Amino acid sequence: MLEPTPLDERKQQILKAVVSDYTMTGMPVGSQVLAAKYFIALSSATIRNELADLVGTGYLQQPHTSAGRVPTDRGYRYFVDFLMEPEAASATVRRTVKQEFESAPRSVDGILEKAAMVLSLVTENVSLVTAPEVSESRIKHIDLVSLEPQAVLIILVLEGNLIKQQVVHLERATSQEDLSRMAAMLNLKVKGQTADELLGRLEVLGAEKAEQRRIIERLIESITTHQAQRQTVVLHDGVRNLLRHPEFVEVGRLEELMELLEQGAQLASILQQVAFEKDVEMIIGRENTSSGLRECSLVLTTYRMTDRIRGTIGVIGPTRMHYGQVVARVRLVSHATSEVLAHLGN
Amino acid sequence: MLEPTPLDERKQQILKAVVSDYTMTGMPVGSQVLAAKYFIALSSATIRNELADLVGTGYLQQPHTSAGRVPTDRGYRYFVDFLMEPEAASATVRRTVKQEFESAPRSVDGILEKAAMVLSLVTENVSLVTAPEVSESRIKHIDLVSLEPQAVLIILVLEGNLIKQQVVHLERATSQEDLSRMAAMLNLKVKGQTADELLGRLEVLGAEKAEQRRIIERLIESITTHQAQRQTVVLHDGVRNLLRHPEFVEVGRLEELMELLEQGAQLASILQQVAFEKDVEMIIGRENTSSGLRECSLVLTTYRMTDRIRGTIGVIGPTRMHYGQVVARVRLVSHATSEVLAHLGN
DNA sequence: GTTAGCACTCTCTGACCGAGACTGCCAACC
DNA sequence: GGTTGGCAGTCTCGGTCAGAGAGTGCTAAC
Predict the structure, then answer these.
(1) How many Cβ atoms are within 10 Å of A258's Cβ, its own excluded?
(2) Which residue has the closest alpha carbon to D24 C1'?
(3) Pick from A155, A242, B43, B292: most CB atoms within 10 A?
(4) Measured at the alpha carbon of residue A65, what is the angle toward residues A59 and A68, in degrees to the nearest 5?
């Protein structure tokens, strides 16, 4: 990593102009275009000198000798950190988002799917949404359903109406009546507790019967593995949008990316690292550790269902993207998602 | 549609050879290659005459005057209907499928996701799996959970351990105790019934209270809309495989296909039309009504969880695919899926 | 520090050409 | 009559080449 060379005002303006123009046109930006469109007071020769400096300090690069300049990852990073002007989502986009969420089904999964769909629609990129991560989730309701004589379906309703289910096999046949009784008992004792609290009380609760103990153990297991299991689920939508970007005309570049998207685990670990404190986080080009994302950027943020139930939402797109606009729209959809989820009932 | 011109034995053999060779190499097949590799007894000139006839009757086509021959959709259709030799999945593939399913989670969704993953893996195409379609599904268990004073979560366990959930808003606040009592009562009366049966008995069951009636109505609604809702869910996996096929080097062709995959509804209606009676159904090239599938073929079959709970599973691939092998592998994975689902408990 | 001028470099496009692959057709053959 | 060898014709593909265009770096003058 190069140390952050300070850029004087004019160099900053030129870098900004290069990023803006290149983002729009997709063509390397030459000194004449810059002089004509952005710096009428300066001659192209002057700009050429500045451009040469910016190449030297690693903010720009030249595809070949007689081509214009293109931002490097470092250039984009400087742009988003210092030069980018805040944008607001347009009224049209806001209306679209609002309308789409109004028609969303009233379930967590349904809303998240809708969020992925809307986000890919308004950003014209691939959207990513993780399932909500539950920290310290409280148990709201337990139900036990007999499937076969020795198999029980545990249904667990957690805070935020997240529903988990797991099948447990028992050593002995147990009737639905027994299970219902057990469930009623558990509901009284267990309601409003977190998994951790439950763990400490295990002996108090279920020392009475081995079967009961086993079911409670599975309950806890089910809650604690919740994060690990669900985190690997990353919804995505809008791959079709990517195909329209000129940077993906060669299929080769798509292949690695598709693998990442379809396999999910690696992506999940990236999204998991998004800090909940930050507003919007960006990962640009080679800042990504995955080779499949070398020519892509991620714009990520957090949505919240409650204070304790949060997830990550954002987009993957080509490094050459309109960051200001994408940030505004990711933020918009994230807020809308949080809003709808919060009103789902808790 | 041309009427089915009868083909004499030799023309059939030549058509078969063209399809086989073209499937392997992806290059138009010339008369010399055919003579050398498949018909040593014949001269290339003779084969040229036959090829010309096959072009005339619409089974083959020429990309351009001086190119070899390529099968038309009609040619492929004739091939799969009359010429294709039954193949069996190799031991390696069978082992892979077996191993993958052993590590599958013990839930319907988990198994179907695994099925999609395995199928795309072994066929190197895009796999498609619909959620199981329930006809006449019997109710196994009902649970009512209070979310807010006036909101109830209905959890419905159907035959085959399919779990449905729906939130109902009530006119009056109802406590969890009341709900539990209601659920216990409903479980006694409703268990083992189908939605249709329930519908007839509505007045018998719940005339007592308006709230109860409302909940039962929602229950029925939930079951009956089951098909319509779930059918639109089509799992897919393995888009990355498609990128490796030379027919998709131009991104344009992929775009429409991706749209179809991500949007889902149109695909769902195609998969819904797969006849449960037939073994394996194939839809080749322009036999597809969707323009995005014009250059693709579908190989589809049915999996069964029980006699009444069935779904569709299959693949989308380029028209130039190794049909014999794909059919064998689709069938294999379908059987494996049925097997695992059936043992999930009913 | 800025600018005009200029030679230079590199890409892109279209034209062209020859090699290679196959065909269709014809006349001869079994 | 079906089959075959021979041959001219057609089309694609890859490579080369030249000219146009875009943009640069450098230099010398301001």
Answers:
(1) 22
(2) A66
(3) A242
(4) 55
